[in-house]
Structure formats: C-alpha cells, structure tokens
Fold these 2 entries.
Entry 1:
Amino acid sequence: MSVSDQNSAPETTAIETPKNVALFVTCLVDLFRPSIGFASVKLLEDAGCTISVPPAQTCCGQPAYNSGDKADTRDIAMQVIKSFESYDAVVAPSGSCAAMIKVHYLELFEEGSAWHQRARKLADKTFELTSFLTDIMGRNPVTAHFDGTVTYHDSCSGLRELGVEKQPRRLLEAVDGLTLKEMKDSEVCCGFGGTFCIKYPDISNAIVEKKTKNIDDTSAGTLLAGDLGCLMNMAGKLKREGSQVDVRHVAEVLAGMTDVPPIGKSKKDKKG
Amino acid sequence: MQITSPYFKEKSSEALKDENLQKALGNVERGFIGKRAKAAANLPEFEALRDRSKEIKDHVLDHLDLYLETYEAKVQDSGGRVHWAAGAQDARNIILDICKRANAKTVTKGKSMIAEEIAINEHLERNGIEPIETDLGEYIIQLRGEAPSHIIAPAVHVNKEEVEADFRRTHRHLPPGRNLEDPTSLLSEARSVLRDKFLAADVGITGANFLVAETGTSIIVTNEGNGDLTQILPRVHIVIASIEKIVPTLEDVSQILRVLARSATGQDISVYTTFSTGPRRAEDPDGPEEYHVVLLDNGRSDMLGTEFQDMLRCIRCGACMNHCPVYHAVGGHSYGWVYPGPMGAVLTPTLIGVEMGGNLPNASTFCGRCESVCPMRIPLPKMMRHWREKEFERHATPDRMRRGLSVWAWMAKHPKLYHAGSRLAINLLGLMGRRKGAFKKLPLAGGWTEHRDLPAPEGQTFQQQWAAQHRNSKLEQAT
Amino acid sequence: MNRRIGNSNRATPNGRSSILAKIRKNIKNLDDPVREARVTDRLSRSPVGLIPARARKAHAKQVDLFCEQASKVQTTVTRINKIEDLPAALAEYLRGRNLPKKVRMGNAPILEQAGWDRLADLEISKGPTQGDDPVGLSHAFAGAAETGTLMLESGADNPTTLNFLPETHCVVIRASDISGDYETAWATIREKYGKGNMPRTVNMITGPSRSGDIEQTMLLGAHGPRALQIFVVEN
C-alpha cells in the first residue's frame, strides 16, 4: 500500500454513510435517456441519500482522453473536480464514466501536485451506481417488480476497471418477478468503444453481431447493462436486425421505472 | 515481407469479408480462451505468480546492461559466441556470415518471432541458402508464402482443407491418391517430410523464450519438438533473441514458466522446455559443434525509461490477441507486420516507426480484456492510449476528427453554452425520432447508422428536466 | 508507402558498445549505487520464488502426484520395484504396443545396473541415434510432481537425440529423484556442476510431442516421440 493510499483511508471510512450525493449524469444519459438519470435519483433517494445535480457538468472527458487529447481532458477533469469535490460522494449510472473519474483522472496530473491530490480525493468517493448501492450503502433499496426474463451485459470499464460484476446481479435478484438468464460471453466487449464504433464501423459491427446473437440465444425478453453507450450500440443493432428484445439500463428496472419505451423503441412499439 | 500496417482499415474490411478466415478465427475463441481460464483456475497461486513474473522482468529491465554483460560472459565461458546486433540488417549480416562459414546449403528453423522481425528467410534465400521452417504452423505458411497471423499459432488463419491443398501442391513426390482428410494424416505427412530436412540441415536457427544470465543458457519452449531437432542435429546452432529476453536465474525462469503455457495454450507447461548452454562438450555424443547467440536490439533499448518500457516484459504468450474482440474479428494479417493484436498494436509503432504503425493503437475498443489476462500485467490499453497521445501531439490525428474533437471539447468546457446548444439539438432530434424510437439514417451519423439504428433521444435533456423540477419545487416551497 | 523491414537497414559498427551505451542512457536510476550489488546478490543467492502448494507434500505423495500429472498429458507410467525389473517391464511394454524389441540407450549407470543380458530377445544398442531407432531409453535425473515433468541432462549417459528422434521414448527415473517442483532440480544441477554451470542441455519433458497448429486441435506425435513411457523405480 502506498503512502497516499494510507492517507486516503480515513476519507473512505468517513463516507461510509454518505448523505449528500452528487449525481454525475453522464453526457449520454443527459442527452439521450434522462429516464436513467431519474431512475438513479430514485434509487439513491430510496437508499437515504440527498441528491444534487451540479449544473456545471457536461462530460467526463473520455472522448478527448481516448483520442489522445490530454490537454482538453485535463481541462475537463479540472472542471469536474471543481464541481463535484464538495459532495460526500459522486455516483454515475455508468461504469465507464465512473472509471474515468476514479481511475484515469489521476493519470492526468503530476503525482504530488495539488490537482493530483484533489483528483485522488474525488476518485476515492466516486462510484458506479450499482456498486455504490451495494458496496457502500450496503443495503438494498430495491422494491421493484418486473415481469420477465432479462439478460445482463457486463460493460468493459465497469467490469475490468471497477470490478462491477456481482453488484448489479445481486440487486436484480431482489426484483420481484424477474428472472436473470446469463448470455454466453457476457463479459466480452459489445464493440461500442466510444469513438471506435465510428472510426472502425465494420469491425465494431462484427463484434456487436456476435453480441446480439448471444443475446438472442438466451430468449430473454430484455437486455440490461449499466452503460448507455453499450446499450445504444446493442439496441441499435438489435433493432436493425429486427429483434424484438427490449433494451434498458439496469437502473430503470431496479427503480421500477419501466413505463418509458425501451431504448430505441417508441411508445407505439409493442412490448417484445 | 511488405508492411501493410498503414492500411489496417482496408485490410480489416477485406478480412471481415473473407469467409475462410472468419471460419478459422472461430478456432481462436474456441481453442484458447476456455483452456486458459481453466488452467489459471486450477492453480491457486496463478495470480501471485503473475505478480512475481512481473517483478522479475521489471527488475531485469532496471538492470538490463548488467545482466546482459553477465549473460555474455557465461555464454563465452561455456564455449559459445555472442554477437550483438543493433538493428535488423546487423542481425541478418551476422547470421548470413555464420551460415556462409559453415558452407550451409539448408538451414532448419524453429519458430521465432525475432526471425520474422528481421526477415531472415528472405535474406538467406537471396544468398542461395534454403531456410526450412519446421514448426508445423510456420511450415504451412512458408508453403503458402505468407506471414504468421498469430505469435504462437502462426497458421491460425488457415483451415485444414487449405493445408491439404498446400501439401498436395508442394509434396509432389508423394502419391496423389493418398488420404489427407483428417488432421492426423496431415501432421504425419509433415513429420516425415521434415524429418529428412532436419537430418540434412547444416545450420539450425532457433529463437529463445528466455536467456538466463546466471548460466548463459538459452531456453526454447515448444510442443512439437521441432525446435530441439533444429538445435541438436545440425553442426551449427544459432540462437536469435532480443535483449529483453534476459532473466536472472533458473529460479526466476521457473516462476515465469508457470504462467507462460497456462496463458498461451492452457497447458500447465509445454511439452518441451529445453535449456541449452554452449556447444557440444568433449564427452557429448551429440549436439552442435558451434553455438552462437545473436542479441538483437532493433529499437528495444529506446523503449527503456519511456512510457513503453512495460511492453518489454512481454513473453509472447499470445493471450492478449486470443482474448481480443478486434483480433477475433479481423485476424492477424490485418495488422500488417509481424506482431498482431494488442501487443502488436503497442510494439509495431515502436519497432517500425510511428509513421508506419501509428494507426494500430487506434483499433481498440479499450475493453481491457488483454490486460486482464496478460501474465506479465502489461497495461496494454494504457500504452495504446500513449500512442494516441503521441499521434495527437504530432497532429497526425485525421483532420476531420481533430476538428470535431476540438469543437466538442470547447463546448464541454463551457457548460452553459453546452447545455443551451445540446438542449436545442436534442429537443429537435427527440421530436424527429419520437414516432419510430430510432433513426435508420441521420446526417453526420453515417459511421453509426451504416450498421445499426441510432436510438432517438427521449426529448428533453436530463438537465433541462431537472432544472424545471427544481424551479417548481422552489416555487412550491415559496408559496 | 510500403517499405522493407528494418528501421535500421544500415549496419551498425560496434553493436555491443552502442547497444549497452543506449541502454545505460535510457535506463532509470543508473546512478543507483547498489545496482551492481543487487545484481550480484540475486545471481549468487538465486532466491527461490513462489512454489505452488500442490508440490509441497510428503515424498510418497509427490511421487503419486508426478505419476498422476504425467498421465494427464498422455504419458504412460509403470511403477517398478527395483531397477532389475526394468528389462522385463520394458519388454512387456514393447510387446503390448507391438513394437520391435530393439532399444537404443546411453551409458547412464542406472541403465547399466538393470542387467539386460537376462533378456535374450531384447536387442540393446548404445549411443546417440541417427533417427533409425524405433525406441529410445533415457534416464531422468529429476522429476517435478507439480506438472509430471521429467528433467534430463545431456552427456554420454544420455544422448539428447534419444529424447527426440525415436517414435517411442522411454524414460527411467528413481522415485527418490522425484520432488515437488522444478526448483529442486536446479539445486541438484548446482550440486553436480557448480553454481552458474549447466550441462550442455537440460530437457524438461512433459508428455509426448504434439501440435495444435491445424485448426487449434491438439494432435499427438508432431516431430518428437509419438509416445512417452516412464518407468518409476521405487527402490
């Protein structure tokens, strides 16, 4: 354990029962599917948190970071740190954005610098939604009901950078009426990869085709995941293939907010 | 070998349409992933051994000059010779010289990625010496005039029907009516054809998985036994190895051996792990009379002390490509040079220059599966990102993308404008997409909608709705 | 835009000094005063790393594990009581496989002790092979139970060609030479050859030759022996 880890240890214990929680909405949720944001708010409030949504948030900076644009990423990171550092905890309904703040912001600043310390403090109290609910709040706020069989895709960043694997499944177990049927290779990438899917559309397509096949093979009526980017990719492909599978963020089901049409479907679409 | 790395995108599009290749690539997923997982799970100490192995290589890299000197002295003590090759041309010259002095007509070769890297076969052929690949996979691709598409399974892109056709085409001395339907008969035929070549060869060239500084020993790890026949039968044995293959002691090698085969093929250990130290001794009834080691740098010393140093821990197990969704989709040849997959995406720009290999690190979803299985815990995505940073710094990022990125970044840094602008765009888009729920086509989104629909936004942004609710609740509180 | 391989197509004079100079220029902590001491220490102590728990058990259990692990990789194992039982056991093995009763072997003392003249119909010859011997017989100086791995040293006692050219490779090992791990074998080698020295060749062998190069399906009998038979001598 490094010195800085030791220093930050009391920090972690201090937020064991965080009250003032800031929601990092994520740019995709903000723009494409606010329902996920409201579902997250409901889950967090049910768990006893008071939610704020700092208005100065835009994006975590990943598109710039993964394109090699470190200067812009750093500016965006500083903006996020400033807007969020005063809260007890920061929660994002996305493993990928949470990992950006929790893992990668530290790499943007020189070790020992003031900004590095601020990034470290923010990292220590930033969480992906399902892991926050289970690992940090330690109680199960789920009272939802969902009729049907779902399958769950593990988004890469959440799974491999944050260890989000059991948490969403544990929460889903508590949903009344829900059956979870695992797909083959649930831990394999869906081919989204942020700008990758635009830069290499053919390869991205080959990867997502394998994913939708594995989804279809489960005969589950609904696909869930914890990252809207992956969900939009898989939903878009399923729709193009004519599949009837509904696609939703895991928070929507956990919060019992499934009255909005699934991702990529309209109110007129019949339930799959 | 032509380098086609700058054409990764074009090559990968061809690969995706190649039905034979796609069929063969299925074997990568079926053949490696489950076996590795099982082997790792069966050894409780596996994760700890990964840590140990990483530590050993990190220690070596911090003391590389000293270990190389020790290694060289030990090789000399045991009667061998060490040749230092700064670059590919140096290595080719050295090897050709040794072969010429041995009056070599044919040279057998064990599988060596370094030999591919310096393209030694072409060089020997140009100088009238016949190189014969003896690893079955390497032999197959040599018959086909191809480069390997995988670092431990060079012919993974070839189906058995194609192997049969290649054998019928090239083994003309055998009866045309022979049965070659099942893989075992193909293996037997290669065995008998190559047996004669082993016995006739004047020089044997092998790579090395490790070089042990303590003893001056080179180590090869194989399953077929071809590497051993290559190095014990001819009069001269040449080892070609890169400088980072050094490990301090036999104990250190033993640590890394415990993760190598498990990560590569899912075996607990490969069939043959052979430790060679110098030429045949006075009391030896067999073995080579001359033992040469060619130590190749070829850009590796430039990686020391940089953000790419960790890559020098690589032991060439192939686990990263075996677990890579991009490799599974496009295969190894798309990467355009010797090293494919994630390790290739990191290594290629270093070894052949960023102008040639610089776009490979972009072809990753950063899913991180490679790093999660790398026995040496090499942070492959992080290093691919370093390459992207370098590409961005030298303004090599394509203009269109760079412009788009800078507009987006400017917006992201101005939240008020960002929210106002995004609200307008998203509200409009939401309205347009409301009826169908998704777009089949959308201006500027061709990269997305070529293969999939774009789910339409719900309508109002989250921030917009939250602000409205917040205003309302404030109003309620006020009244 | 294509170009030939080699970012360094010009020959570099003094490869050795230029490579070492470049390494020293780029290496981190070159000024560290204990760098050399650290290397000397590691090379002289050769610290033993992590040994899998499965290898650390009573000797009799290690022998059992060795046989079990070898069998898992398609090696056949026969446990014999004493070395004098070897000729009969070998003859039976050859008979069972319909192999010619013709064996090529080295001068290892343990093989001398077997007393081959008691079996008249077993044809014994000695020395390295040119590839025309169907059966090779060698002696392993060590065995590692963790993976069922044989360890053989080269020399007049054990021509290395016998390990690879015959279609059938038989290996004799004393149960007392079997230990849990590879590291024990290195200790044995150091005792015999001195610290830092090795026989010309040490072969770690785990199962018969195989290849997975055709469609990633493992097939036995690539270039080396198609069959590997171990005789474990209990006493």
Note: Chains C and A do not touch (no CB pair under 8 Å).
Entry 2:
Amino acid sequence: MKDYVIEIDSLTKTYQTGKTDFKALNTVTLKIKKGDFVAIMGPSGSGKSTLMNIIGCLDRPTSGTVIIDGENISTVSDNELAEIRGRKIGFIFQKFNLVSTMTALKNIALPMVFLGGTRADRDQRAAELLGKVGLTNWATHLPSELSGGQQQRIAIARALSNNPSIILADEPTGNLDTKTGEQIMKLLVALNKEGKTILLVTHAIALKRFTNRVVNMLDGKISEKK
Amino acid sequence: MITDIFVMALAAMKSYKVRTFLTLIGVIIGVASVIMVTTAGGSVSSFVAEQFNVFNPTGMVIGTGTGGDTPQLSMRSVVFTTNDVEKIQNLPSIKAVAPVGIVPLNKILKRDGFLKWESRPGETMYASTPDLLTIFNLDLEEGTMFEEGKNEVIISKNVAEIFGQDKPLQVGDTIYLRRVDGKTLTAKVVGILKESKTTTMLGAMGNPGIICPIKPYYSTYFGSNAGTILKRVVAYTVLLAEATDTKHVQDAQNQILKYLDSGGSDASKYKDQSLDFVVITQQYILVRIEQVVNVIRVYITAIALISLLIGAIGIANIMFATVTERTREIGTMMAIGAKRRDILQLFLYQSMIIGLLGGLLGCITGASGSWFVVDLLNRSIQNLGGAIATGTINVIYAPEWFLIASIVGILIGVAAGVLPARKAAKMDPVEALRYE
C-alpha cells in the first residue's frame, strides 16, 4: 500500500452544464506507484485534464476518494488543499506560466515563498535548481527575455523547488519545437530516475517512449493498456 | 512572508509604471486638496489671530463708495469737512476721529552739498492728525510726532531709505516736497515709523510713506474733486475713527452713518448722488477675510472629496483590469501553493501602495499648492473693502494633516482594492489557468 503515491478510488466528477449533468470522470479507479513515469493520454473531452486537476489538488472530486501521498484531499479545506498543492505537487504547464514581472530566480523561489522560510534559503535553493536545469547565467532575466525551452526549464526548476513527491506535466512540449521538446523530456526522465513520480498529460503518442506506463482515457473512463 | 508578498506587489507595479502613475493622479489631487484646504485654513486662522493683536479692533474708516453687504471705498470724492469731523467726534460711541487728506507729491528733494539737489519721484503723503497713529496702532521708532501748523513730517522706514540705504534720512533732516500743483514745501523729519506687520487699512491707498499735519500741507483746492467744493473749506477724502471700546464698534458705525445720511452733514451736500457713505471697521475686515476663506474652503473641500472619490474609482478600475489581465498568473500562483489569502494580500498591497504613493505625492503637491492658495487669499484680501489692505497671510503648515492625508491615501487604496483583490482571491484555479 505504502508504495502508492496516488490512490484514486471510484472517483466521479460531475459538472453542471445548464440543466444537464456532465460526468467528466465516471468512477475512475487508479493507483500510481512511487517513482512511476505515467503518460495519461486521450482525446479532448476524455477527462484527462479533469483527472489531472484533481490529482493536482486544484479541484475536488464530486464523489470517491483521492489520496495524494497519504493525504485524503476530499475532506480538506481550501487552505489545506493549497498547502498540499504547494508541498506535494510540482506543476509544469504547456504555456510555461511563469510570472511575467519576476526574474527567473524569483520565479523558481515563488513556491517556497508561499510556504515560508527565509529569503536567503530560498534564493540559495533557487540558484541550485537553476544550475540543475543549466540556466545559472539567466538568473536575473525576465521570462520575456528567455526562449520557450529556457522558460520551460525555469518552470521545471520551479516545480522542483518545494521538493514535491509528484510532478504533473500538462503537455510540457506542446509549445516547443521537436528538438527542444526532446530535451525537456530527457530532463523529465532524469528527474524520474532520481525518484520523482511524474504524470504526463499529452496528445503526443511519440512521448510514450519516455514513460513506463500509459493510462488511456475515453469518455471519463480509463482503458489501460500496457 | 508578508514582506515577500509586499515585495512582489512592488515588483508588479514597477512593470506597470505608466498605469500606476495615471492611477495616482486622482489620489494626488484629492490629497493635495486636503493639504491645501487645511494649510490655507490654518494660515488664515493664525493670521486673523495675529491681526486681532496688531489691529486696533475699535478702528474704522469712513468714506464714500458703494454700500450694501460688501461695502467698497472709492477714495475719489473729497467730501468730509472739518465741521463733519467735529460732529462725528461728538457722537456718543466715538473716542477719536482723524481726518485723512491725500497730498499727491511730484517729487521729494534733498539738498546734497551746497548747490546739488537729489530728487526722487513723489510718494503719496497723508495729511492727518496725531490720532491717526493711535487708531492704527502705529508707533514711532524714533523722534516725535509732528505738530499741527509746523513744517514737520514723519516718514516710514521705506521713505527714509529712498535716497539710498547707506544714507538714510534721519530725524532732524530737512526734505523738500513738491506737490502736484507745483508748490514746494520744506519739511523737517521729526519722526520715523516703526515697521508694522500690518500696513493697516491705509495699505491699499499706498503705504503711509509720509504723514504730515494738515496745516500747512493740505488744502482742498487741489486734488481730484476740487470743483465740487464751493467755498474754501478744508475737506477730506476719508476719516478714520475709533470707537470707545470693542463693544461699541457697531453703535459707532450706526451713529456715523445716521449722522452722515441725515442731510445735516456737510458731506451729504458735497457727496456725489451715485455714491453712498461707507464705514468699514477693522472687525469687518477680519470677518470678511474669514468669509472669503470659508468660501474657498468649501470649494477646495468639494474638490478634495470629488478627487478622492474619483481617485478611489480609478484605483478600483485599474485593479480590476490588472486582476483580469493577470488571471492566468493568479491561477499559476494558486497551483504552486498560493493560498487565497496570499492572492488577496498581493492585490491589496498593490492598491495600498498606490494609495500611499498618491498620499505622499499629494502631500508634496499640496504643500507647494498651498503657496498658490495663500497667494490667492492675499490677493482677495487686498481687494476687500476697496481701499483697505491688511498684512499678508503667511503659509503655516499643519503637520498632523500630512499624516492624516497619507493615511487617508492608504485607506482609499485599500478600500478601492478590496473588491478587485477579492475577485482575484476567489478565482477557481482551474478556470484561471485555462484563461487566455
């Protein structure tokens, strides 16, 4: 049991669209082991984004239980949810989503700001991570001064800053050219080798080869193939 | 962590410099107006208090002009005879009367050596009696008062220096006064006036540079309206009077007007039909100053309130725009662990900083603007009662209002920021992240 970092049981998420209910997720049960590199694939509207949002503690289930690294997120308050999100989840977005008014270093340090700690510690940790993604010389640059690939590296460093147990990457190569995308994927593989559990949401079948498990989704249900 | 979020708010504002500045303007004007109105009010209050000390509160000017609620002296007609002076002197509430005759001078001359003369353009000279000084609280710095019928004058410090600061006229010097009718009269300087903070009611007629006895300097057959005088009677443009005490100023005023308007007075015969008799008391001047100030105060307060309101709306507006524009960043921050409270603080700080900056800049603007307001007040006072001038109002700042205004700035910033910041904090992270 303790090997599972994500335990989802009979998860249902219903959205009200007008007068009809729309089941984005329909009794999904899924367990993900610590250290897995999982691709979640499926067409638009299959429910993969909704699943991602719930695992990422951005949204709550309508019914069912979701346990993230030992915490049952169905029953916690908004603040606790934010706390779990900050500590246990690292997000990587398709559009990088760096804060445009902050330098690369400050962007990396931002998740630590919300958890407290001294500025010196944060800046030191951010500088380490900047080195890890190979952008030490870009610390004081604003996102607008960086290339897409560089921005995504900064975003990965930011995702690592609170040393989370899970990294959620939502189409991380979607806005990058093939070559740069490849480099980003290799960086994720390296992180996976260091023990991070990575969930990759993607359309791109080509990315399957980087992962060790594929979860296919269709109409709010999982159709898993090895 | 609070300071970290504060720093983030500052950084965000730095990248929106123009927007921040434009938003500031409304707050700046509002706060500046508050500072101006309080500074002007304080300056005037202390001025009025000072005037009550310096003025003779029982003093008044009698003349012709336009009456009514805001009487104005015209200073054009020579109507009051010696007979009138005596009659007014005998009114029950009157302590003293001093006639004032205007003696326009062409030149002031001084002998420099045996055959050389030094000449200066003429000042306006007032012919009166020694009571003039008591009525206006003017003192002599040195020398004595002139004697009626002698060729003696007293002069102000300014006049003493007209031949040069290095060789001022001294008590005992003799000068030569050439009147506009061409006649030159010798005059011995017997006294020099102490400088006064207020130039008194005589101010707008021209500072009393030279004051002389009526004989031998003043006669009625020169001057502006000489034609209306049938006989060679001595007549004056204005009279100065003093009531028996401060409680009887109003009585004295009524008695004088009653006498002058009765038809029994000489003045009523010589007076132009279109003109009224006017009595302006020193008290009235102070009351008028306060009235003017109150009008200005009401206007500026209205401006202050309106600008502060507009400033607040401006801040709210710009904060809503900023929140909407940064929706995806808000979603991102929530995703990486920001609590709703953090987001709320981030935007509240921004609007608070705008308010604070606006407050501080408003204080600076208001401090400078106060000079203009007080200048405006000084101009209004110069025009009060036509010929009447008083001293000048000095700018006196009220430090506590700078503090209050800055705090008001911050409060407005926070109040205006509450709704936008709540909007940001209440966002659903999933939707915020999806925002394009």
Note: Residues 202-206, 221-226, 385-389 of chain B have pLDDT under 50 and may be disordered.
